[in-house]
């Protein structure tokens, strides 16, 4: 089984960078030389299906990037089916209680830690002690994206074997009745509180960041960053056309 680059960097106290918004193996290849540590494969809101996962994860493997799949439900069968198809990490949405966080672990880890069904992922070919290695290498991440999760955060943080507690800004704002208002002081205060509380609990905090916010969150101690390329493409396209515009009379 290939080393989990994101998990290793986090264990070493380093920052991990994950790129989302990629829908094909070719797009993953394009980012292979850039230096990102992982790829966020979108199976909650995006088009990724179980039949797509092997080729997408092979592309990640070629470049040494960790493949991380966001599933659409906190069901053990979905969690370990994704892992059985070859991903190295799982993200589970809307985890609002300690019990829900522990369910992620039960689906993501083999016995004696969890109860993941015994099946050989392609990541296990030629690995005689695969079950132990998989338990060591698989990355588990839960999304803190509801205000009820923030209120229950101290209990959620007690769940063992969760590698990253990821604060999701847009859904969190929506759950506060402030949909689309990410800059609202109450939303920002809640995000900052959650990120700080995760670290005070001795756990790793992650969040979504863009060029204009990453420095702020890095200073706040966040160690896993997700971003998407769409804003870079839009900015580059605007600059390209501006540079090509004829001089004004």
Describe this structure in words.
Helices cover 42% and strands 14% of the residues. It has helices spanning 5-11, 25-31, 53-62, 76-84, 98-108, 130-137, 147-151, 153-156, 169-175, 185-200, 214-219, 230-244, and strands at residues 16-19, 38-42, 66-70, 89-92, 139-144, 164-167, 205-208, 224-227. Helix 4 (76-84) runs parallel beside helix 5 (98-108). The protein contains 12 helices and 8 strands. It has 249 residues and is an alpha/beta fold. Strand 7, helix 11 and strand 8 (224-227) form a beta-alpha-beta unit. An 8-stranded parallel beta barrel has the order 1-2-3-4-5-6-7-8, surrounded by 5 helices. The relative contact order is 0.13. It has one domain (5-244): Phosphoenolpyruvate-binding domains (TIM Barrel, Alpha-Beta Barrel), CATH 3.20.20.60. The longest helix has 16 residues, at 185-200.
Ordered list of secondary-structure elements with their pairings:
Layout: H1 5-11, E1 16-19, H2 25-31, E2 38-42, H3 53-62, E3 66-70, H4 76-84, E4 89-92, H5 98-108, H6 130-137, E5 139-144, H7 147-151, H8 153-156, E6 164-167, H9 169-175, H10 185-200, E7 205-208, H11 214-219, E8 224-227, H12 230-244
Parallel strand pairs: 1-2, 1-8, 2-3, 3-4, 4-5, 5-6, 6-7, 7-8
Helix pairs in contact: 2-3, 4-5
